[in-house]
Design a protein that fits this description.
Blueprint: H1 3-21, E1 24-25, E2 30-31, E3 40-47, E4 74-81, E5 87-93, H2 100-114, E6 121-125, H3 146-172, E7 175-185, E8 189-191, H4 200-205, E9 216-224, E10 229-236, H5 251-263, E11 268-273, E12 279-281, H6 287-305, E13 310-311, E14 318-328, H7 335-341, H8 347-363, E15 369-379, E16 382-387, E17 390-391, H9 393-403, E18 408-411, E19 420-421, H10 424-429, H11 431-434, H12 451-466
Parallel strand pairs: 5-6, 10-11, 16-18, 17-19
Antiparallel strand pairs: 1-2, 3-4, 3-7, 4-5, 7-9, 7-13, 8-12, 9-10, 14-15, 15-16
Length: 468
């Protein structure tokens, strides 16, 4: 089933390489000697709210499928074409996470369907904990029965069709636009490792909140060439965990998008999650708070939209690069270890052990490392980095310190949400983000202490390719 897709993408890559060698750039067959054209943007969206009873993702304490919704969940697409014809595609998803066994063939099919390169397709999850279980992501967390698993499989199959539909429609909708960008600020994200939830209101009032945070709100503005705001893309480094009930919702990020679209009729708002693996919206656990945080985020975006903004001109270029690095596990136990844990009274440990034993039976071994995706786009003076997993805030702060906080955006939860990605500091400190969460992702061990440097070596490779 996948072979024609893979062959198709290989053909696209081969043709692209040949055209580049001939001096032809981009899908639009633009000659290198021609004067630059215009920036183009296309958008599309479709609702992805489950229609039947499906389990919700993100919390181990839930014990039944969702009931009702606060608002629709969405997949949204934003296609960009540079004046020289190069294209990229951002697909945002109101989902907790997706896994590479789903996204790899999906991106291949999107590439074949749209002509956008495989590495230029970014699937970005908002990480809402009020969305559905998808594919195999976090699957060992939930006590799913046979009917529950079938519901997840049926939803996942329908979801992939809708993602492909939106991707195609966004590319087909490309039209001349003006693109500009800036960075705002919203302060509701709190470092959850450093501040007990019950103490946050008092600590905030006293100005005594602790721990690293990233309150930046990266904002991309898209205006139609014919006039009017066409789209806005915003990011924020904070878990979408304000809500913990049984109703579908995009959490604060979903409410922020709804609010911006209400304020700006005819506009599509998209959200990407930053490096918020250790950041929570605090206090939380009510719809009123989720709506309030959404308004705060929308306010930050609206302030930024008023300018000053950096505008992309016809002379600016669009460059892309991507790589995969191998993240080592600290130590992978042998079969005897998992056989013992398979009968554990801890259902999460037992579920992970059974899953790993099944993999041992099928594949004969467990991998000692994991393929980790890194990608980046450069739009004029802006560099936008895309990372997989639940990345803690240290990564964004370090990258912006090393590369320039005014011109670097960092998105996490992209392509593959395989686990938490702790910095070396967080890994050595331990706790949920450093060690404990690996059991829920079905991985055999914490990461090795080299995890942070390995990822930054990959970022360096990508950065150097953008500079060429």
């Amino acid at each position: 089933m996948l072979r024609p897709v893979i062959c198709g993408v290989t053909w696209f890559r081969l043709v692209g390489s040949t055209l580049a060698a001939l001096g032809i750039l981009g899908w639009g067959m633009v000659w290198a000697g021609d004067p630059p054209g215009e920036w183009k943007v296309g958008t599309a969206r479709v609702a992805i709210t489950p229609e039947g009873p499906v389990w919700m993702a993100g919390y181990a304490a839930r014990n039944r499928p969702a009931q009702g919704k606060q608002h629709e969940l969405w997949v949204k697409g934003l296609a960009i074409e540079s004046p020289h014809g190069k294209r990229v595609l951002l697909v945002t998803l109101d989902l907790c996470g997706v896994s590479r066994d789903l996204t790899e063939p999906l991106r291949e099919e999107i590439a074949q369907t749209t002509g956008v390169g495989f590495d230029e397709v970014i699937l970005a999850c908002s990480h809402t904990h009020s969305g559905p279980v998808v594919g195999t992501n976090l699957i060992t967390m939930y006590p799913l029965g046979e009917a529950d698993r079938k519901a997840v499989e049926d939803y996942t199959r329908d979801l992939t069709r809708r993602i492909i539909q939106v991707s195609r429609q966004a590319v087909e909708a490309l039209e001349p636009c003006q693109i500009s960008w800036g960075i705002g600020e919203a302060s509701f994200a709190v470092n959850r490792r450093e501040n007990p939830e019950r103490d946050v209101p008092t600590l905030r009032a006293q100005g005594q909140l602790k721990g690293p945070v990233d309150h930046a709100v990266p904002t991309l503005r898209v205006d139609r060439g014919s006039g009017g705001l066409a789209a806005v893309v915003m990011g924020y480094a904070c878990h979408c965990t304000t809500l913990d009930g049984y109703e579908w919702s995009g959490d604060y990020a979903g409410f922020a998008q709804l609010e911006l679209e209400r304020r700006h009729p005819g506009t599509i708002a998209l959200f990407f999650a930053g490096c918020g693996g250790d950041q929570n919206p605090l206090p939380r656990r009510s719809r009123a708070l989720a709506e309030d945080y959404g308004r705060q985020l929308a306010d930050a975006v609206d302030r930024t939209l008023q300018g000053p903004l950096t505008r992309l001109g016809p002379e600016d270029r669009l460059a892309t690069a991507a790589t995969t690095v191998r993240l080592d596990f600290a130590k992978v136990p042998d079969r005897a270890h998992w056989e013992e844990l398979a009968s554990s009274t801890n259902r999460f440990e037992a579920a992970r052990a059974r899953a790993l034993l099944d993999r041992l039976d099928r594949e004969g071994r467990l991998e000692t490392s994991y393929p980790y995706p890194i990608a980046a786009w450069r739009l004029g003076g802006l560099t936008w980095v895309f990372l997989g997993g639940e990345v803690v805030v240290d990564y964004a702060l370090r990258l912006k310190k090393e590369r320039g906080s005014d011109s670097v955006w960092v998105a996490a939860y992209c392509q593959d949400v395989m686990a938490y990605i702790p910095s070396r500091r967080v890994l050595l400190e331990g706790g949920y983000e450093g060690v404990g969460a690996m059991v829920y992702y079905g991985l055999p061990s914490p990461w090795a202490e080299t995890v942070e440097e390995t990822i930054f070596q990959g970022i360096e490779q990508v950065w150097n390719r953008l500079d060429r």
